[in-house]
Amino acid sequence: MDKPDPDGLVTVAGQLLAENKTTGAFSYYKKAANLYMESGSYFKVFEVFKIMTYIYKEQGKLGEMIQLVLETARKLEDFKVFDVAARMYENAGTLCYDLADYENASAYYQNASDLYLSLWEENRERDGSGDDARKFADDMRKLSGILLIKSAEATYHVLARKDKSESLMLEGIFRICALAEQVPSIETTLVLHMKRGNFLDARNMASNLAKAFKEANEKLHVTREFNVELLSANVKSRVLHYQAEYLFISYLITRKLEGEEKAAAIAKEVLSLLLESMGLMRGIFAKEHDREDIERYCFDGMLHAVISALLKKKPEPVDFQDRLHGDIIRAINESAYYKIMVTIIGPGLKQAELALMDANLGKLERMKGTLMKLIFAEGTGTRTGTGDNGTGMKN
Predict the structure, then answer these.
(1) How far apart are CA 44 and CA 37, in angstroms?
(2) CA-to-CA distance for 74 and 6, rounded, in angstroms?
(3) Is there a domain that residue 145 lies in?
(4) pTM for the full model?
(5) Most confident of the ranges 241-250, 290-299, 372-381
């Protein structure tokens, strides 16, 4: 006996659906989907599932539909049909999200992201790839990033998982901008050049990294689709923080090679980025905070103070603790970065040298020895303070 034509079954299902005979329609769609699966018409499977999802959603059977979608996604994954499997996992994530099952929604969005990433890795490694293949690979990488942002948004709704949501969103932005593969190798090269005193090459590397994070900042508009303003603001603050760090390196090198006057424009840009980052964090602190947020806020304040001391002039003022509540102020007061900032503002930059050497400088730690020599070079940045020492920041 010949198998029925799946296209014909879809036609019958459509007629039944038009007559509001949803149970019969669903049965025909399901049979058609199974036949499409057997024949390898995988995109048609996905198209039919979209209609089936609509029917079960109307009937209040989302739980059953999620299981059906997941079973099909796993089969497609076994068949290595990763693009359609990814769409299925994304569909499962959206259905879970609609049920406020945010933890599973996040997990299924991550499954979809991983599959898109595997497609990107597979296609970028092919020899002799043409423009179309490269575009496909880039599209897969960007889709992987967008699904990570969706996962971040879902995770944000899960109590005690907000740190994870920030990491996911940042990773998603990195993936969209291809930073995940750019940054580590450039950072490693930068560190080598800094340690060897190859300052022109190091400055080029630092400038390239700053430009990459500037591009990432511009791509953050992708997150507007997802309704978590605080999460987007926190990630934006992080990106500004990274951009400022690399521009800070560029500033120090330019200051050494070309003098303070030539470096002043870069310093001004770094200060502006730090102020913007700190402003975003202050807005976030009004609603939520964690230890890492506060440490990053204090680090930015410290960096702002270092640059301002080197410039010997007052930039736009900032009230570092103004309108912050008690537990945040207590955490700030305990931060080593804040204590260094206060030392720079009061006694002066030279008096903070030992504390800076002892502090963990995060991304800058691997080149700290060279940075310290650039900051404390003879005749620069060593004067004592005058109350605010040019930082313009009140503690």
Answers:
(1) 8
(2) 22
(3) no
(4) 0.76
(5) 241-250
